[in-house]
Amino acid sequence: MRPPAGSAAWRVGGRDLLADRPFLLMGVVNVTPDSFSDGGRFLDPGAAVAQAVRLAEEGADLLDLGAESSRPGSDPVPAREEWRRLGPVLEQVRAALPELPLSVDTTKAKVARRALDAGADVVNDISAGRLDPGLLPLVAERGAALVLMHMRGVPKTMQEAPVYADAPAEVAAELAERLDAARREGVREERLVLDPGIGFGKRVEDNLALLRDLSPLLALGRPVLVGASRKSVVGALTGAGVEDRLPGTLALHVAAFLGGARLFRVHDVAAHRQALTCAAALAGKE
Q1: Residue 2 known to be catalytic
Q2: How many domains in the chain?
Q3: Which of 45, 83, 99, 155 minimizes the number of CB atoms within 10 Å of its CB?
Q4: How far apart (Å, rounded) are the C-alpha atoms in residues 42 and 40?
Q5: Considering the domain boundaries, does residue 5 fall inside one?
Q6: What is the mean predicted confidence (pLDDT) over 187-198?
Q7: Which of 85, 222, 245, 265 is catalytic?
Q8: Radius of gyration from C-alpha coordinates of the chain
């Protein structure tokens, strides 16, 4: 079995979250009316906070709060509306879970700044800093942790005609450029994580190729996050509806873990903790 991706640390605040842990689970809380999986279920702040607490109780290592859907075909949300949805939830989750690291899923520097002011620790940017030139300098200035995700184009059009000759190599090359951009802006190396962007501007075969071979991405020297939870690749392979994709999700995430991924963005925390704990034991990575 391939060992974890080197000994790369991921520092969030003053802690290396990967120290002595074979994997990290990032629980998803969507504060949106239209996300592909649970859109509208947690738009009410009370429901969103209750979901955050539930995921923490299931064993989430950190939570990812998002208020703008990035499903294929979705339209962008103005920063003011994104913060109107996100702000009350973030503030209440921070109060309810004062020690748990919180990530904010946004591409906008204005939203990220307010989120960091309200207690967020991580910025999770699906555009890897491409869509707002102010985001990388902000992260550097604030010393925040950062997830750089791969996506070609924007969510509205990303699935119209994606083409890759070699998805693992091409995604790694494009994320290497974004990694260099973050470094040039002053984001510290140990704050950075890379995400190949499963389902973002990729065909089923591209997603499978990435999950089958993470080595080009691992070679960049940063921890790798994979988020295949409930995504269309599982539906395309199995015919399962969104709410019935947990078994397929677990299979893909276990494969990614055995291939070197260390972080997983998931809707179903308890099931993932059980599956990945067993996979870690099997691989001798406890």
Answers
A1: no
A2: 1
A3: 99
A4: 6
A5: no
A6: 98
A7: 265
A8: 17
141's CB contacts (< 8 A; 6+ apart) are 186
Range of the domain at 191: 11-282
**Would you call 156 a catalytic residue per the annotation?**
no
DSSP class of residue 107 equals S
Which sign does the torsion angle of CA 14, 118, 21, 105 carry?
Answer: negative
The mean per-residue pLDDT over the stretch 48-53 comes to 94
pLDDT digits (tens, 9 = 90+) for 234-260: 999 999 999 999 999 999 999 999 999
Q: What is the CATH number of the domain that holds 17?
A: 3.20.20.20
Sign of the alpha-carbon torsion through 122, 153, 87, 48 = negative
| Tens digits of residue pLDDT in 160-192 | 878 899 999 999 999 999 999 999 999 999 999
pTM over 0.90: yes
pLDDT at site 3: 37
Higher pLDDT, 69 or 136: 136
| Residue 59 belongs to some domain of the structure | yes
Q: State the Cα–Cα distance between residues 60 and 197, nearest whole angstrom.
A: 21
Evaluate whether residue 267 is within a structural domain: yes
- Choice among 94, 113, 178, 231 that is catalytic: 231
